[in-house]
Write a structure and sequence with these properties.
- With 268 residues, this protein is an alpha/beta fold.
- It has two domains: 164 residues, Rossmann fold; 68 residues, no CATH class.
- Helix content is 32%, strand content 25%.
- It contains nine helices and twelve strands.
- A six-stranded mixed beta sheet has the order 6-7-8-3-9-10, sandwiched between helices.
- Strand 4 and strand 5 form a beta hairpin.
- The longest helix has 18 residues.
- It is globular and about 55 Å long.
Length: 268
C-alpha cells in the first residue's frame, strides 16, 4: 500500500547560522506515514521537528532526497493540491488576525477552489461540521482576539479539518489547553484516525501524550533520526537520557499500560 507521505533520504540546510552557532541541517531523513496511522515525532529543542513540518507543507524545499505524497513527488504538486492532502495545525494563530472564528475555519476550504471568491453551501456545511467536532461552533461569530489560547487552538484545528486532508500534521496540539480540552482533543484525534482513516503526524514535546496516541514514534536529535519504533521500543531510559541529557524514569500508565516518562529531578 502506498503511504500517505514518505521521506526518502531527505536533507536540508539553512543558508545561515545564528551568531555563535553552527548551521543547522536535516541529514538523510527517511520515514513514512501510512493511512490510518499516528506517527509521533519527538525530540529535544533544535532536533529538526519544525523543519520537518515546513518541508512537508512545501514551505521549504529539500536540498537532497525526495518527499512523496500519496506516491507523487511533493515538488510536482501545486500549493493548493498539497493543502488538499496535507493540513498543518500550528501551535497558535497570529494575534490581531481580523476575522471571526467562522471566517477563519472557512479559509480551510480555499484549497478546494483557489480561484473562487465566495464559499459554496457545501463549503459552509463542511466548516460547520469541523467547528462542531472541535467544540467551537458556538464561537463562530467571535473574533480571535477574544478567545483563550486553548479556544484558538481548537479553531485552528477546525480550519485544518475543513481542508478535508488525508494527513493531519499537528504541532503541539494541546499546548494551550486545560486538562478537559486536552482529553477531548485526544479523543477527537483518535476518532478521526480510526473512523476516517486519517493519517496523523504528531509533533510534540509531551512524550507521554505522544506515547498514548501514537502507533510509532520517531525520535530525532540534531537534525537526524535516532530511532523509530513502537512507543515501548523508543522510550527507553538509556536512549532518552542520552538524547535529552537528563535522568528519566520510564514506567507504564496504570490504565492503558503505555509508557510514561518522568524526569528524575536532580534535587531529590
Amino acid at each position: 500500500m502506498t503511504p500517505l507521505v514518505r521521506l526518502d533520504g531527505v536533507g536540508f540546510a539553512y543558508p545561515k547560522a545564528a551568531p555563535g552557532r553552527s548551521r543547522f541541517e536535516i541529514r538523510d531523513l527517511s520515514f513514512a506515514v501510512a493511512s490510518g496511522e499516528v506517527l509521533g515525532l519527538i525530540g529535544p529543542n533544535a532536533a529538526g521537528k519544525t523543519t520537518v513540518i515546513h518541508l512537508l507543507s512545501k514551505v521549504l524545499t529539500p536540498s537532497r532526497g525526495e518527499i512523496f505524497v500519496e506516491g507523487e513527488p511533493l515538488r510536482s504538486l501545486g500549493r493548493a493540491e498539497v493543502a488538499r492532502r496535507v493540513a498543518v495545525v500550528p501551535q497558535d494563530v497570529a494575534q490581531g488576525f481580523p476575522y471571526t472564528v467562522g471566517e477563519l475555519v472557512l479559509m480551510g476550504r480555499f484549497a478546494h477552489a483557489p480561484g473562487r471568491f465566495f464559499e459554496s453551501a457545501a463549503d459552509a456545511r463542511v466548516a460547520r461540521e469541523a467547528m462542531r467536532l472541535t467544540g467551537v461552533e458556538a464561537l463562530a461569530g467571535e473574533t480571535l482576539g477574544r478567545l483563550s489560547g486553548g479556544e484558538r487552538q481548537r479553531v485552528v484545528l477546525a480550519r485544518a479539518l475543513a481542508q478535508e486532508p488525508r494527513l493531519l500534521v499537528l504541532d503541539e496540539p494541546t499546548a494551550h489547553m486545560d486538562l478537559r480540552y486536552q482529553a477531548e482533543c485526544v479523543g477527537l484525534l483518535r476518532r478521526l484516525n480510526r473512523e476516517q482513516g486519517l493519517g496523523i503526524l504528531l509533533v510534540s514535546h509531551d512524550l507521554n501524550m505522544a506515547a498514548e496516541l501514537s502507533d510509532r514514534l520517531l525520535l530525532m536529535s540534531s537534525g537526524a533520526a535516532v530511532t523509530m519504533g513502537t512507543p515501548e521500543e523508543v522510550l527507553q531510559e538509556s536512549t532518552l537520557e542520552r538524547v535529552y541529557g537528563c535522568r528519566v524514569v520510564v514506567d507504564k500508565h496504570p490504565a492503558t499500560r503505555r509508557p510514561t516518562v518522568n524526569v528524575a529531578w536532580p534535587d531529590r
